[in-house]
Design a protein that fits this description.
- By secondary structure, the chain is of the alpha+beta class.
- The protein has 4 domains: about 1-30 and about 195-230, Nucleotidyltransferase, domain 5 (2-Layer Sandwich), CATH 3.30.420; about 45-100, OB fold (Dihydrolipoamide Acetyltransferase, E2P) (Beta Barrel), CATH 2.40.50.140; about 105-185, Ribosomal Protein S5, domain 2, CATH 3.30.230; about 235-349, 3-Layer(aba) Sandwich (Aminopeptidase), CATH 3.40.630.
- It has 8 helices and 20 strands.
- It has helices at about 130-140, 160-180, 195-205, 220, 225-230, 265-285, 305-320, 345-349; strands at about 5-10, 15-20, 25-30, 45-50, 60, 70, 80-85, 95-100, 105, 110-115, 120, 150-155, 190, 210-215, 235-240, 245-250, 255-260, 290-295, 325-330, 335-340.
- It has a 6-stranded mixed sheet with strand order 15-16-17-18-20-19, covered by helices on one side. A 5-stranded mixed barrel has the order 4-5-6-8-7. A 4-stranded mixed sheet has the order 3-2-1-14, with helices on both faces.
- Strand 9 and strand 10 form a beta hairpin.
- The longest helix is centred in the last third of the chain and has 22 residues, at about 265-285.
- The protein starts with a strand and ends with a helix.
Length: about 350
């Protein structure tokens, strides 16, 4: 199976979308279960600022249905203030959802950024002519907009039609303008639901576009998605040359253990560690794992750490999710912090 295929599967009350690239599962979106009413990443609420717990460096925000968010940036705000917030990361059931006032209205080609004015064009679009043309499209589409609204043009704009880009900007701008006025009421309310799996796929898999979109009953079966999902249910991930790594999630952190298989030579250890570093970001994304991550790489000399860290940094950067390598512990473990941008797969299934 060659090429990029987007497979859509719909079930009672929710949908799933999988991106297969040359027969390998590259990305996966799954809607929350129908009985899960917890705040989902990307949803925008009108909330009421509540109390500030001691030592928490932030404040709770009252959301609809008795739910709560946790807001860090509270400067200039007093309890009872009406705030527009967006769920920034996933959290465990029963915990306050991390929220931010830095709203993002994200679509296929454009991202509107309230309170962050200016135009930014994806750095992957390097051609000056293309950047100039996109600047003209953006200027026209944002004419008359509030000067506090910013705009980011995504890399998918590279090969897109100017009219489609302008239309996308216009829709996102109008959506942002309508929601930003929702501060007069005093009751918590969901203003914009989190994107569905299908919408997330349309929005994020457009660069380049999939060569096939399989949107029919049995699409996952036809393209091997169910088999790939089954593999994600087990901790073990096989690597080249008989090496493998184990990915296990706990309440406190995600633990990664890299093994060389039957070869215990230093060369085998470095090879396995580099393979694990390159494969790990995709595995974390597919499994919906983030937060604190501790990696126990296969034993090797300290001089190899720079090469391993370089491979891991490049893989994390290409994956796109906000991540940070904190360094190495005295016991030789590598620590990584990764934003929880999705719900864990084991919860969704």
């Amino acid at each position: 199976m060659i090429g990029r295929v987007a497979a859509i599967e719909r079930g009672p009350g929710r949908e799933m979308a999988a991106l297969m690239v040359d027969g390998q599962l590259q990305d996966l979106f799954i809607d929350a279960r129908p009985d899960d009413a917890s705040p989902q990443p990307g949803a925008i609420y009108r909330g009421i600022l509540d109390r500030t717990p001691k030592g928490m460096h932030g404040a709770l925000v009252r959301l609809p249905n008795g739910q709560a968010g946790f807001l860090k940036e509270t400067k200039g705000l007093a309890p009872g203030a009406v705030v527009l917030v967006q769920v920034s990361t996933a959290t465990e059931p029963g915990k306050a959802a991390p929220v931010t006032q830095r709203l993002l209205f994200k679509s296929r080609y454009a991202i509107i950024t309230p309170r962050a004015p200016g135009l930014n064009i994806a750095r992957s679009i390097r051609e000056e002519d293309a950047r100039s043309q996109l600047g003209d499209v953006a200027k026209s589409a944002m004419a008359g907009a509030d000067e506090t609204l910013g705009l980011i043009l995504r890399s998918a704009c590279r090969d897109a039609d100017s009219e489609d880009i302008a239309a996308d900007i216009h829709v996102m701008r109008k959506l942002a303008e309508s929601i930003l006025t929702e501060t007069s009421a005093r009751e918590p309310e969901l203003l914009l639901d989190a994107p569905s799996a299908g919408l997330s796929a349309w929005r994020d898999w457009s660069d380049p576009d999939p060569e096939e979109v399989a949107d029919h009953i049995g699409a996952f079966e036809a393209h091997g998605v169910w088999e790939a999902i089954e593999a994600l249910k087990t901790p073990r991930v096989d690597l080249a040359g008989g090496a493998w790594m184990s990915i296990e999630s706990t309440r406190a952190l995600v633990a990664i253990d890299v093994n060389t298989g039957g070869d215990f030579t230093p060369a085998a250890a470095l090879k396995a560690n580099i393979a694990a570093a390159r494969a790990l970001p995709r595995q974390l994304r597919l499994r919906g794992l983030g937060g604190q991550i501790v990696i126990d790489f296969a034993p090797g000399p300290k001089r190899d750490r720079a090469v391993i860290e370089q491979s891991l940094t490049a893989a994390l950067r290409a994956e796109g999710t906000e991540s940070h390598i904190a360094g190495w512990t005295p016991l030789g473990h590598c620590e990584v912090q990764r934003r929880r941008d999705r719900r864990p797969l084991y919860e969704l299934l």
